[in-house]
Design a protein that fits this description.
The complex is a heterotrimer. Chain A contains 15 helices and 15 strands. Chain A is α/β, with parallel strands linked by helices. Classes of the chains: A alpha/beta, B mainly alpha, C mainly alpha.
Chain lengths: 406, 295, 334
């Protein structure tokens, strides 16, 4: 008797909670509006290079587009993936199933992007990745619905790696963030070092968002390599550079930051970073268009945009153009249109979307200015060379993407 | 070039010293856990959170009130110790008559609350805390460059550990404490305020955790998760050492830190699991722990 | 007794109709965690052992199932079976080690062992480390049922949950379950009655681990990935919380707890961010201080129409003088 009541009560609790959480599911159809999700790191080690800035950049793109496409509202939603693949995959699934999200952008952090790409492809939506760098996204793990927008580890390795080896840095030891991104960057850079006649002496893997780099740096020091390649990003790069200074590594060895964002330079200061080579897809001070856009971004955030922020703006613009031109948010048609047409905005001119999902555009090799050369806050880079779009990225002939017919 | 088993001696000694630094933290934290457990019979899951709060106390007072490292080294433990006493009065005191597992669960909940609050205000990425000027720089020992600050950490924590041992084993106050641990009712009957002693003990444990936190701040990034990453390892240390003796806790903590450092040289892949493997072996051979009393 | 049956049938009917009203993935998530919590409760509520490392079984099974289906291209049923076997084996090892100590040490040892599994999963190549194991195909169950359809997999998950729950229900009400309760109430007495207490504890541990593994394996099948979150100690903490909230040692408590906690997390995570952790912690604290019987336990106590205070505390976590814990306590520090 008591058990019956308990069972009944339990079912009642079950039903109410479930009905309460049901709201969003039936409310919207995908066709009623275009909804774009910014999936990013809001509070972790990458929040400075993506984070809230990416949401603002996406909103700027929507505003510049007039807030509507095909007469329907364009809506931005955002979420913090906490750098966890499962959080991201769950969020992406829920966004698509319940909230009718059509396109997901930013997806900073390669582990997150790989997980999200799987869900997005299964559900036939589009992921335009501007933050994650692993080349796996356009190789082993490529999907017909992934656009790898801004940069990747191949481009970074070829830009910075080549420059450093040519300066005489021919023996390398890697300090690698232990996940997809770090592994890709280490591998791609090793290939470049070897191709240019250098030697790789070893590598040590550190956990993402490591708190203490000292023991890893001791291993790097013991290797006696000339160059310690930092195959990590964001807060990890900043902290490993600081720890290297503390342990006196910089006296005998040089550090090569393989992915350094302008936000990292800003937090480390020019004194600690001068002379470093940096490969970027975009810099705020490239031309009038970039300066104008960056000024608007700066007014909203009090920070200069990173290439990821600019990439989010560009990807949203690109997507909305495609929806407008095709008259639908159907992923297959939108992707086909984006592959067929060239794209130009303040991020790049005549960008081409390749069949493996790689967006081709120019990359830039910068060198960090000496403190005396910098005339204004955020004036950090000297442009050393521009890498043309057809050389910046991995050639299609080397692609390991199963979608590519050879 | 000097090498041992193909490992440069420089790397070996370097990792040994770093292991000693980590071991100092294990020692101080497991000591605090042991003292609290001794009198309160509670495994303080919030110990990691208190350690984290110590580091944040130092960081906050530097950032907002421009209070430097040295005052923080005293102030943070005092503040967090007082906070610990509030926890004891507000929550823990209601549990003494219940199963000890409730203490574990309650302090786990407190740890979650503290961690979540700090995550809300400071995010999960670390805040840098500068090394105090007097200890900045490094000494070239020939075989390695030792940042002075790390040497100070080992010295400071050893001093605190030994002082704690002295107070408990060699002073009148310590004698009361030991007696209360054995038989609280009897000690109470002798006119000693045992509840007050319990509160002070928890406060002292919290202060010890906070002191470790301040010491750790310049080495690692001050972040909300720094405590929970550490506390599980410290639990393993406690299981290995057994909570039977103060010197045992200190020795086990330091020893395991060194072993972990050595593992980083010879087999880096195992460095994060080696302490747990040792725990398994100790459990098989001597279930009560190295210094525990078998019952 | 027939009323109990009617109650269960009503619950089942609701469950079967649910995907037409609610987001099925959410209900499936609830079911996986409900099964996980029920498995955990078998150990805590009915044997009196607090394991703080149950995520290890949940997560290891999730990884093994994912690996079997992705890299070895095995079918879902084989994948699930392998996942459960892996969890059972791991449960045997954990149980064998942990039952050497009691009470609070038991909890710490399981936590430490689970942390070791976590680090193992972080580094072992087959788990994908920080990236996790992604893109696990749902495949077709027995080659017949195409699980890619959300509705189909929903009913499969319901079937798995009902099967798992029935096993637990039967176990509790079997002679074996009675011995477990005897151990929980008074271990020395059970020992003196001639029961091989350690063997019973170990069996209960392995059973609980296997069912936790079944929950983890099902979760991988449904969501298509296994990650470090599944083996992290926070997941172990969550399952403790679910059981505590619902009612330790009650049959339905863990299910109610799982519904509450999963829905709370799901709906609040975006709105309040890290405050979810604070709320979880607060629930823990309130539960331990004021609400030790949990929701179902409290309701059951009130339905017995006696003043609630006269009902004993949930038996596992009995007063400190309980014989099951005393051997550890006096040999304290200093």
């Amino acid at each position: 008797m008591n058990r019956t009541i308990i069972a009944a009560l339990t079912s009642a609790v079950f039903l109410t909670t479930i009905v309460a959480s049901a709201q969003a599911q039936t409310a919207k159809l995908s066709g009623d509006m275009v909804r774009i999700g910014v999936l990013t790191d809001m509070s972790g080690l990458y929040s400075d290079v993506g984070g809230q800035g990416s949401v603002i950049a996406a909103q700027m793109a929507v505003d510049d587009f007039g807030g509507k496409v095909l007469g329907k509202k364009v809506d931005i939603v955002s979420a913090d993936h906490q750098n966890k693949a499962d959080v991201a995959a769950n969020k992406a699934r829920e966004w698509i199933d319940r909230d009718g999200v059509d396109m997901i952008t930013d997806v900073l952090n390669s582990a997150v992007a790989l997980a999200t790409a799987k869900v997005v492809a299964e559900k036939k939506r589009i992921m335009m990745d501007t933050g994650a760098a692993s080349t796996r996204l356009t190789n082993e793990d490529c999907t017909p619905y992934t656009v790898h927008h801004s940069y990747d580890t191949y481009a970074l390795a070829h830009g910075t790696g080549t420059a450093v080896v040519k300066q005489g840095g021919d023996t390398w030891f890697f300090l690698t963030a232990d996940y997809a991104f770090g592994h890709s960057l280490e591998k791609d850079t090793s290939d470049v070092v070897k191709a240019n006649g250098g030697k790789v002496l070893g590598a040590v893997r550190h956990p993402l968002s490591a708190s203490d780099f000292s023991s890893f740096l001791l291993q790097a020091q013991a290797s006696k390599a000339k160059i310690i390649g930092l195959a990590n990003a964001g807060g990890d790069t900043v902290n490993s550079i600081k720890a290297a200074n503390e342990f006196g590594l910089t006296k005998t060895q040089s550090l090569a930051g393989l992915l350094v964002f302008i936000a990292d330079i800003h937090s480390l200061g020019l004194a600690a970073t001068q002379g470093m080579y940096v490969t970027e897809a975009w810099y705020w001070d490239l031309n009038d268009d970039t300066r104008k856009w960056s000024k608007r971004f700066f007014e909203k955030t009090k920070k200069m945009p990173t290439m990821i922020h600019a990439g989010v703006y560009s990807s949203v613009t690109m997507y909305l153009n495609a929806v407008k031109a095709t008259g639908t948010d159907d992923a297959d048609q939108v992707m086909a249109w984006m592959r067929k047409n060239k794209h130009s905005d303040m991020f790049g001119k005549n960008m081409v979307l390749r069949e493996d999902g790689r967006l081709l555009h120019e990359m830039y090799l910068f060198q960090v200015k000496k403190p005396a050369e910098s005339k204004a806050p955020w004036d950090y880079y000297n442009l050393r060379s521009t890498i043309p779009a057809d050389q910046a990225f991995q050639p299609l002939s080397l692609s390991r993407c199963p979608l590519i017919k050879k | 070039m000097t090498e041992i088993l193909g490992i440069p001696i420089q790397a070996l000694l370097g990792q040994l010293l770093l292991g000693l630094v980590n071991g100092s933290f294990y020692a101080m934290l497991s000591l605090g856990l042991a003292i609290i457990f001794g009198l309160l019979n509670i495994i303080n899951f919030a110990h990691g959170a208190l350690y984290m709060m110590g580091a944040y106390a130092a960081w906050l007072s530097l950032t907002y009130f421009n209070v430097g490292y040295w005052p923080s080294l005293i102030l943070a433990p005092v503040v967090i110790g007082a906070f610990g006493m509030l926890i004891e009065r507000g929550f823990l005191q209601w549990l003494y008559k219940l199963d000890h597992l409730y203490g574990l669960l309650l302090t786990f909940g407190i740890a979650l609350m503290l961690e979540g609050t700090f995550r809300y205000f400071f995010g999960v990425s670390g805040q840098p805390y500068p090394v105090p000027e007097q200890l900045s720089g490094a000494t070239n020992l020939g075989f390695m460059i030792l940042p002075n600050y790390r040497a100070w950490v080992v010295a400071a924590s050893l001093t605190v550990c030994v002082a704690t041992w002295f107070v408990i084993e060699r002073t009148r106050l310590g004698a009361y404490l030991r007696a209360a641990t054995e038989n609280p009712k009897l000690v109470q009957a002798f006119g000693i305020n045992v509840p007050l002693m319990v509160t002070l003990t928890y406060g002292f444990g919290a202060a010890l955790a906070a002191f470790s936190g301040v010491l750790a701040a310049p080495i690692i990034q001050v972040n909300p998760l720094m405590g929970s990453n550490l506390i599980v390892i410290v639990f393993a240390v406690v299981v290995i050492g057994g909570m039977g003796s103060i010197l045992g806790s200190i020795a086990t903590g330091l020893g395991l830190g060194v072993i972990e450092g050595l593992t980083k040289v010879f087999y880096p892949e195992a460095s994060s699991t080696v302490i747990f493997v040792i725990m398994v072996i100790v459990l098989l051979v001597r279930p009560a722990g190295l210094f525990g009393r078998e019952k | 007794m027939t009323r109990t049956r009617i109650g269960f049938l009503v619950a089942l009917a609701l469950l079967l109709a649910a995907p037409y009203f609610v987001y099925p993935v959410l209900v499936m998530k609830v079911l996986c965690f409900a099964l996980f919590a029920c498995a955990f409760n078998l150990l805590l509520g009915f044997t009196g052992l607090l394991s703080f490392g149950h995520a290890a079984f949940f997560g290891m099974a999730a990884y093994v199932t994912g690996y079997a289906m992705t890299r070895l291209s095995l079918t879902p049923e084989v994948g699930l079976a392998l996942g459960v076997l892996a969890a059972a084996a791991l449960g045997g090892v954990f149980g064998g080690l942990a039952i050497r100590r009691q009470g609070i040490y038991f909890a710490m040892i399981t936590l430490a062992l689970a942390q070791m599994v976590y680090f193992f999963c972080l580094q072992a190549p087959f788990t994908g480390g920080e990236d996790g194991l992604q893109g696990v195909p749902r495949g077709a169950l027995f080659g017949l049922l195409d699980l890619r359809d959300d509705k189909v997999i929903y009913y499969v998950v319901v079937a798995i949950f009902v099967a798992g729950f029935s096993v637990i229900y039967r176990t509790i009400h079997s002679p074996f379950g009675q011995v477990l309760k005897a151990i929980r109430e008074n271990e020395p007495r059970a020992l003196s009655l001639g029961y091989d207490v350690n063997r019973y504890k170990l069996l209960a541990f392995v059973l609980s681990a296997s069912l936790a593994g079944l929950a983890g394996a099902t979760k991988t099948l449904m969501l298509g990935f296994a990650t470090l979150t599944d083996v992290h100690w926070a997941t172990s903490g969550e399952v403790v919380l679910m059981t505590l909230v619902g009612g330790v040692g009650t049959v339905l408590g863990p299910i109610v707890g799982a519904i509450g906690i999963v829905v709370l997390q799901n709906e609040l995570a975006d709105k309040v961010g890290p405050w979810v952790t604070v709320i979880m912690g607060a629930i823990f604290v309130v539960n331990v201080l004021a609400f030790r019987r949990g929701i179902v336990g409290e309701i059951a106590a009130r339905l017995r129409k006696q003043p609630p205070r006269s009902i004993p505390e949930p038996p596992v976590l009995a007063p400190a003088s309980d014989a099951t814990v005393t051997p550890e306590t006096p040999g304290s520090a200093l």
